[in-house]
Design a protein that fits this description.
The complex is a heterotrimer of chains A (363), B (513) and C (309). Chain B is an alpha/beta fold and 513 residues long. Chain B contains 16 helices and 22 strands. In chain B, strand 1 and strand 2 form a beta hairpin. Chain B is globular. Chain C starts with a helix and ends in a 15-residue tail after the last helix. The chains are: A mainly alpha (363), B alpha/beta (513), C mainly alpha (309).
């Protein structure tokens, strides 16, 4: 009765080594790039030239490199947080919305709080962290207490957040000095994030992202609460058996994940745009792309530094190709989608060994 | 073997062998079922009854042996093929889709009639006919989830009859029923047999065998030990055949040094995962320095008992007093902190985190203690030293303490669980099936370890389906049946026949000590 | 504008805007009923929109465009079916990947079609006699795209198939209890592939409706998040095609009204309603028995492997 399909045989693989995982991931990304290259060729663009342009554009100049890092920052900050949520078996698809809520609260503080200048930026970060965390806690509680699907709730809240931003920029917060455009007023300069000399790299956010990666790596690996998160994520039954509260861990993981996504929002409004504007200009699907970033990093916060850089390169590549080859920025989504599919495929390779052969009865 | 030569045979299994990794579930089993009889398959859990019937129903393929149906050799590659041969099976866990209606479940997967459209009119006519004929009344439009368990079972029988089954396998059909529903079921089965069907009835309950069957085949440890005519046998004989072995003491056991009473359980009630009563008023005491074995056929509340005592399941009534605390009011964490160790039934799924290292799994419960955790940071050196100690003391065979537990063998995982649970010199140990699936060496070692804990002064509740084990290392044996204490006897004074009768729910000791 | 004509045009716009939601939701209901969560609706819709526009433009026949959109999105959805059914991959990730891929491919390929007019659009029709009914006639039966009626017919048809035919029972059984369905000889993989494809085809047609009928043109990202409303709608409709129809029109009405009531009510609030309502519905049905009665498939998003009881 227990037959696997005729042409494919799948058996569970014992825990694979880190190198196996790394090698399989690299192969998956290369395959995705090859398929994307075929798409280029099919589309009448030389793949070699396209990739050459991307590499030159992303690494070839100081401007290129710094722009890559700018793109990387939100992915890093969100991705680091997502590793914790994913470790606790919580599917946070809502980073996009958490980012926007962070942006909203940061903008509110920047524009209307009247805080003294030196306190402004710290207050914006704290407020944004709290906003993102709150946006994430709701689904966490609904899942832990009522067993409600986390994917759907976090996803739906993304759109609620989008309309909150729309409402604000079209209504109560619409900037009187903006001549009818749907933006808030420009932030006071005290609310501008400090930049790395002459670039668009907003330093505090980058620092939070890098520090977050280090701290969370340490927390997950070395601390008591990290131990609890890992046990809940790897085997909820064993967590119950060991007396670990799953509710507490889920909520904690979402405070971290949502909060960091909120922080990424500060970077975008106070570091890049200096105002609250159209949600699609603020978020740019960072929240979704960061899912791939965290997934590819195999939920390791330190590895997110690497993977977020990779996706920073891809996003920068989108900018470059737009100019040099006249292809739309949407190309980035082609890369993202392909990489994600090949990663899913590689996941199967990691969890299982696949053999090709004929039907065999097993039991 | 007593077979009625004059009656035509319905099913003949000969020399059936079925191996699973590590176990031989059926070891050359032969079975002859005559047409028109109710034939019981009796045996303890793990005796191979269900495996044998799953082979007949096409769910498993035998490694060796032959199947004859009405005298002709056949192969049964799938349940569908079994149905084509008019063999139906009602599983212990029903194969019904809860959100579909009765008639939808009945036609599910059938390709009668033409085209994709349903002819519920015809279905209903046939159902009505079957219902009238056999007294199986169910509303065809009701959804399965709205029905009682007894009604659901009727749907399963109807499903088989609708597919024209003339051989019906019932796997422990009464285990989920109330006594009234059991009566109704037996009435139905008798009607079915009168109408010419053959029924194979899997059970471990002696009373049922006596009441319903014409003949009974007893299985023990994967072998058919006897087939007898029910009216020529007795419960006592069947109990002996089922349990079937003399108690052998192989492990060195000192006389117990009883300490003070550590656990007092009174009128304990709890529900199982399906929300049905699993424990129904259990009461017993346990002293330090003693092993109380819990004997019983699986599914009679042992699992729930171990979970209630360790805080993983809520009690609906009653108490379990350990020192100054009522365990039914404590969380799993509090109970562990009180010095209660728990070797869980499913040691890999529940007792360990397979993807985490040996070192980390060894501190799964004590990671918060000052020994392993300072200022919220885990002390890896302490964990490492702890792991080295445990690996040496319990002879855990692992390449190093960073190896994921999932890569260890079953015996080593059990050693690891024991090492962890017994490390803090617990007062009270709940050990559920501690040697299940282990090889001889590991089994022996686990038993020695448990005895050492007892000699140290711990009170141990040993839950096991292996009667040899229960008798070898327990000081007293509690027999559990349907969530009740049937009796508590001293291990060395135990009378096997009596134990067998208690396990099968046919005899209850007057007073528990 | 008189009150009467206001009502007529509101209903008429609601039907028009609700149709793509309805078509795609019917498809997602089928996929989820079979146990496969497909978050790729947005991607499948946009691929359908581009295909429909391109083929309609090239052939001059809008119906061919609609047909091609169904076929192409159906094939596109097979990626998700392969990942989630055959590879047993995580359906959330696979669905998101499908959406990204769809948005990306359509954005790049569609560049050439941006801003081009469509000569032969899917013309609106009126239904003789019925259009003469006062108020309802002009609101429902006058100057609507034929796809509006296709949507309504599909809803009834797919409801019938799901609840009244053998194949519908198989689909529901596979989404609820694949092991039981398998033991009765139903091919779980085949049913799931089929249902994911139904989802792809209908999402493709929904996309084509946008680009050849509703607003005959192609713009990058023109589905504008409709695919996510579809995910919400599927829950809101309790996985039932007829409720899906009413749900689609209800959400569409919120959308249409969000423009018409701007003076009194924040349009953003109304637009956020579908998403909030989906969460409310999830909370309401989180009790086990209610969930069963309401139709949430138990095996949703769980890959099926034989022999794992």
């Amino acid at each position: 009765m227990i037959k696997t399909p005729a042409w494919i045989q799948i058996e569970r693989r014992p825990s694979p080594s880190g190198w196996t995982v790394f090698a399989i991931s690299v192969v998956a990304i290369l395959l995705a790039l090859i398929v994307a290259g075929l798409f280029f060729q099919f589309y009448g663009v030389s793949a070699l030239r396209a990739y050459g342009d991307i590499i030159k554009g992303a690494f070839g100049s100081r401007l290129g490199l710094t722009e890559t890092v700018r793109r990387m920052i939100p992915l890093l900050v969100i991705g680091v947080g997502l590793t914790v949520a994913f470790r606790a078996l919580f599917w946070n698809i809502g980073a996009e919305g958490q980012l926007l809520m962070g942006a909203v609260v940061a903008s509110g503080i920047a524009l209307f709080s009247g805080l003294p200048d030196p306190l402004l930026i710290p207050a914006m970060f704290l407020g944004a962290f709290a906003a993102g965390a709150l946006w994430g806690i709701g689904p966490a509680i609904l899942k832990a207490k009522l067993g409600i699907n986390d994917v759907i709730t976090t996803l739906m809240l993304n759109y609620v957040a989008i309309y909150v931003v729309h409402w604000l920029i079209l209504g109560p917060w619409k900037g009187p000095t903006m001549r009818g455009f749907p933006y808030t007023d420009k932030f006071p300069t005290a609310a501008f994030l400090p930049m790395l000399g002459g670039t668009r790299i907003h330093l505090p956010t980058l620092a939070i992202g890098l520090a977050g990666a280090l701290v969370l790596y340490f927390v997950v690996k070395k601390t008591r609460v990290g131990f609890e998160i890992r046990v809940v994520g790897e085997n909820p039954d064993a967590a119950k058996y060991a007396g670990i509260s799953q509710t507490k861990i889920t909520v904690l993981a979402m405070v971290i994940s949502g909060g960091l996504a909120g922080v990424a929002g500060v970077g975008e409004v106070a570091g890049v745009h200096h105002m609250l504007l159209n949600p699609s200009s603020i978020a740019l699907s960072y929240g979704y792309t960061a899912i791939i970033v965290a997934w590819l990093a195999r939920r390791n916060p330190l590895a997110v530094i690497l993977t977020s850089f990779l996706f920073g390169v891809i996003m920068r590549g989108g900018d470059v190709i737009k100019i040099s080859l006249g292809l739309p920025f949407q190309l980035v989504n082609v890369f993202n989608g392909l990489i994600l599919f090949f990663l899913i495929g590689s996941e199967v390779l990691i969890r299982y060994r696949i053999r090709f052969g004929t039907v065999k009865e097993t039991s | 073997m007593a077979s009625k030569e004059s009656v035509p045979l319905a099913v003949q299994l000969s020399g059936i062998v079925k191996r699973f990794p590590g176990v031989v579930a059926n070891d050359g089993v032969s079975l002859i079922v005559a047409r028109g009889e109710i034939h019981c398959l009796l045996g303890e859990n793990g005796a191979g009854k269900t495996t044998l019937m799953r082979i007949l129903y096409g769910l498993y393929q035998p490694d060796d042996g032959e199947i004859f149906l009405h005298g002709k050799p056949i192969r049964i590659p799938s349940p569908r093929a079994a149905l084509d041969h008019r063999i139906g099976m009602v599983h212990q866990h029903f194969h019904l889709v809860p959100t579909l209606s009765v008639e939808e479940n009945i036609v599910l997967g059938l390709s009668e009639g033409t085209g994709p459209f349903l002819r519920f009119k015809k279905t209903r006519q046939k159902l009505r006919r079957l219902a009238d004929e056999y007294g199986l009344d169910v509303d065809p439009t009701a959804k399965i989830w709205q029905l009682t368990v007894g009604q659901q079972q009727r749907v399963e029988i109807l499903k088989a009859l609708y597919r024209d089954a003339d051989i019906l396998i019932m796997d422990e059909p009464t285990s989920v029923l109330t006594p009234q529903e059991v009566d109704a079921l037996f009435g139905t089965l008798r009607t079915l047999v009168e109408a010419g069907l053959t029924i194979i009835f899997i059970t471990h309950k002696l009373d049922e065998v006596m009441e319903i069957s014409n003949r009974v085949t007893v299985l023990r440890k994967g072998k058919a030990v006897a087939t007898v005519n029910t009216d020529e046998s007795s419960k006592a004989e069947l109990a002996r055949l089922m349990v079937g072995r003399e108690v052998v003491f192989r492990v060195e056991k000192k006389p117990p040094q009883l300490g003070e009473k550590i656990l007092h359980v009174e009128d304990l009630h709890a529900l199982n995962d399906r929300g049905l009563p699993a424990l129904r008023g259990m009461s017993f005491d346990l002293s330090g320095g003693e092993i109380l074995g819990v004997a019983g056929v699986s599914g009679n509340g042992q699992h729930e008992l171990s979970e209630v005592l360790t805080g993983l399941r809520k009690a609906t009534k009653g108490k379990a007093i350990l020192g100054a605390h009522d365990l039914t009011q404590c969380s799993a964490r509090t109970i562990a902190d009180l010095g209660v160790a728990h070797v869980p039934t499913e040691r890999i799924r529940v007792g360990t985190v397979p993807s985490m290292s040996v070192r980390e799994n060894l501190i799964l419960k004590s990671y918060r203690s000052r020994e392993f955790c300072k200022w919220s940071i885990l002390d890896e050196r302490a964990a490492h030293e702890n792991a080295c100690r445990a690996i040496k003391e319990y002879e855990i065979s692992a390449p190093h303490d960073g190896t994921p537990v999932g890569n260890l063998s079953g015996g080593n995982i059990q050693r690891l669980v024991l090492a962890r649970e017994l490390s803090g010199s617990p007062k009270f140990v709940v050990a559920a099936h501690p040697t299940y699936g282990l090889d001889v060496g590991a089994t022996e070692q686990v038993r020695v370890v448990l005895l050492a804990q007892r000699d140290r002064g711990a009170g141990i509740l040993l839950i096991s389906e292996d009667l040899d084990e229960v008798f070898q290392i327990s000081d007293r044996v509690l027999v559990i049946y349907e969530g009740q204490v049937m009796g508590i006897v001293r291990a060395e004074e135990a009378n096997l026949e009596e134990i067998g009768l208690m396990m099968a729910g046919s005899y209850r000791q007057a007073v528990a000590e | 504008m008189s009150w009467e004509s206001w009502l007529i045009s509101t209903i008429s716009r609601t039907l028009a805007y609700g149709t793509p939601l309805l078509l795609a939701t019917l498809g997602e209901i089928y996929a989820e009923r079979s146990g496969v969560l497909n978050l790729g609706v947005e991607g499948m819709m946009i691929v359908g929109a581009l295909t429909g526009f391109a083929v309609a433009g090239k052939t001059g026949n809008p119906w061919l465009g609609v047909l091609a959109a169904g076929v192409v999105s159906g094939v596109f959805s097979l990626i998700h079916a392969f990942a989630s059914v055959t590879l047993r991959a995580n359906q959330v990730v696979s669905g998101l990947a499908l959406t990204m891929l769809g948005l990306g491919l359509s954005g790049v390929i569609g560049r050439a079609y941006e801003g081009r007019p469509l000569m032969n659009t899917l013309d609106e029709i009126s239904i003789p006699l019925l259009e003469k009914i006062p108020v309802l006639g002009p609101a429902i039966f006058q100057d609507q795209s034929p796809l509006v009626y296709v949507g309504i017919v599909m809803a009834i048809l797919l409801w019938f198939v799901l609840f009244k035919t053998r194949i519908g029972i198989s689909i529901r059984a596979v989404g609820e209890d694949p092991a039981t369905a398998d033991s009765l000889g139903i091919n779980v993989s085949r049913v799931r592939y089929l249902c994911v494809m139904v989802g792809g085809v209908l999402a493709g047609i929904a996309g084509a409706y946008l680009s050849v009928a509703y607003r005959p043109s192609w713009t990058d990202g023109m589905t504008a998040g409709m695919g996510w409303i579809v995910i919400a709608l599927t829950i809101f409709a309790f996985w039932n095609p007829i409720s899906g129809m009413f749900g689609a029109y209800f959400f569409a009405a919120l959308f249409v009204l969000s423009f018409r009531l701007q003076a009194w009510l924040s349009p953003e609030l109304l637009k956020a309603m579908p998403y909030l309502l989906a969460i409310v519905v999830l909370i309401v049905v989180s009790r086990g028995t209610l969930q069963k009665r309401m139709g949430a498939p138990s095996a949703l998003s769980l890959p099926y492997t034989r022999g794992e009881d």
